[in-house]
Amino acid sequence: MNPQERIDELSDQLNHYNQKYYQDAVSLISDQEFDFLLKELEELEKKYPELAREDSPTHRVGGTITKSFETVAHRYPMLSLSNTYSEQELIDWDERIRKILDKDSYEYICEIKFDGISLSMVYENGVLKRGVTRGDGQRGDDITTNVKTIRSLPLRVRSELQTSAVFEIRGEGFLPNKEFQRINAEREDIGEPALANPRNAASGTFKMQDSSVVASRNLDCFIYQFISEDDRFQTHEESLIDLKSMGFNVSQSWKKVNTIQEVIEYINEWSDKRHTLPCATDGIVIKVNSYRQREELGFTAKSPRWAIAYKYKAESKSTLLKGVTYQVGRTGAVTPVAELEAIELSMTTVRRATLHNADEIKRLGLCIGDYVFVEKAGEIIPKVTGVDASRPSALFREEVQFPTACPSCGTGLVRTEGEAAYYCPNEKTCPPQVKGRIEHFIQRKAMNIDSLGEGKIEILIENRMIDDASDLYRLNYDSLLGLEKVHVDEETGKERKVSFKEKTVQNILDGIEKSKSQPFSKVLFAIGIRFVGETTAQKLAAYFKDINQLKLATYDALMTVPDVGGKVAQSILDYFSEEANVQFVERLEAAGLQMVSESVALEVEGNALDGKTFLYSGTFENYSREALEQKIEANGGKLVSGVSKKLDFLIVGVNAGPSKISKAETLGVKMISESDFEGMLTPPVS
Ligand code: IVH
């Protein structure tokens, strides 16, 4: 089979598995087999980039860095919808429709209004060619590489289902609620402020430059519109049914109705049920079903007359503010939390709500003992929106005073210019910071020592057995046996005794020992450099190969790593400029943790090129560029980026750059051929 045939076969096969999995929830092969085939395809595409298909499943995992998105014109403008919060206005709208359509009978399709960002996707000959944001309605950003990471979106539709040569579909791109919560937990963990709601998070993610980060966020899209030149469909209903069978993700929440009363029933039916959907929603869209009637109804300047959005009012309830507590995070940031009398909001019980920071408390003018309004921001995170002046305050009314000292260790709080949060500067011994750092270290995504979960860390800290994560590697059986503590669950208030018996101790020690084989990227994430999350740690580990290279990296070198911006680069420099951090990392290294990237560790072939620097130019018979680079590094050589006096060897291939050659000649740098280079790898027999 030639490469093109194999690429075609793999692409078709993997696209089929993907579609079955994401549309029909059917797993035809194991994850491992899938990854294996995908890897084979990735390698073939790397070798023969010109043979890669536009609908290649490798696009799902991203990898392209787009410097800035091109602005492109929409084939048909993307209009908005007129909207209302009132049932009466819906009834009035229905009256107008009835009048314009005269005596003609009509139907409506009711759909959920998803709260994400609108997207337009253009397919040519059944292949997804372009994904564009709404922009100003006339022109939007071309975000095709990011749109292709949406796994429920077919990259190619089967030809027998395909309609015209070119068609467009529109839908709402969103970040699933679960992903939103996961990302926010991750952000909190590395000291980034939480994203306000899933909509903003989706919009930010769709516009990220690095599509591999986008892919890691599992965006999704519900499709609600089909546009083409041919008259394939008479009604919206037909289009929704066909889109679904073509493999598009059409939410099955839509319903065909005959009267405005039925529309109102649909609105009531979904008012609570919508919270069970995987994404944020903010209303209902009502559309005339017949395309002929839509044409008759036409458009106003901004929106179609044949559709309207009914928006649900954000559910807001008032409840008693019983107190404000202050949480100290791993990074020392102090977050105020409103302690509320329990209320039911959007189908969950709310007892606490974040107050973000001191400015927010001031802005809201909060007093303990007041009744306050609580809403869900983007229907997920409870938020205090103001004081309910219509309800009398409790007798114990008292102004909320943001503390000046750390509620945990008493150290005076500080506030950095331009930042909203107050910090406890006592990084070393403030208990929640110490505990937070160790919890971060042992978590599954980091060193994965789950035998230390559920309150066991507290026991170790309270008994002064660990001050930082490196102390974990000095624990032994005898010192752990017999430790115990009564653990009180924060949510339920239930007490539970945790005690270290023989089996527990052995599990803990086994878990700690096993963590020594976690790869360098996980260690790098675990040590907890501010703003260095899981993905950034992976990119840093791939780029710098070992901890010493990272420690010595300059600001400029850090900035060349994908996904690393000024804030992250500065934070890494700050981290390694602290002697205590350097020593901490050294203790971990001495304990046997992986401080070298796996690929490098595995690929060491010899030391024949030790201490020598190399640069290559042109193409080679036996090596791709990457293979040559790997060969140099695997044998102890170092690659440099330009011809200078420091360069030991320039490897000259076919079509080598003349400027490099003449510069090497001028500086007296030794030039060698591919076979000279190979000769260096196998030292002559003496
Ligand atoms: S139909 C002429 N259907 O709401 C506009 N839009 O305010 C036709 N949206 O830009 C849009 N769910 O981003 C339609 N089921 C749905 C929708 C929906 C969410 C968004 C869409 C649009 C905005 C209009």
Task: Give me some keywords for this one.
single chain, 686 residues, D-amino Acid Aminotransferase, Chain A, domain 1, OB fold (Dihydrolipoamide Acetyltransferase, E2P), 6 domains, 7-stranded antiparallel β-sheet, 5-stranded mixed β-sheet, binds 2-(butylsulfanyl)adenosine
Average pLDDT metric: 89
Q: Main beta sheet, described? A: 7 strands, antiparallel
What is Rg?
A: 30 Å
Q: Which percent bin holds the helix content? A: 25-40%
Name the CATH architecture of the largest domain: 2-Layer Sandwich
Fourth-level CATH superfamily of the largest domain: DNA ligase/mRNA capping enzyme
Number of strands: 26
What is the total domain count? 6
Structure description:
The chain has 686 residues and is α+β, with helices and mostly antiparallel strands. It is built from 25 helices and 26 strands. The strands form seven sheets. Strands 12, 13, 14, 16, 17, 19 and 20 form a seven-stranded antiparallel beta sheet that branches. The protein has a five-stranded mixed beta sheet with strand order 2-11-10-3-9. It has a four-stranded antiparallel beta sheet with strand order 5-4-7-8. A hairpin with a 2-residue loop joins strand 4 (117-124) and strand 5. The two termini are 45 Å apart. The mean pLDDT is 89. The structure holds 2-(butylsulfanyl)adenosine. 2-(butylsulfanyl)adenosine (IVH) is lined by residues 79-81, 111, 113-114, 118, 134, 172, 224-225, 285, 303-304, 307, 309.
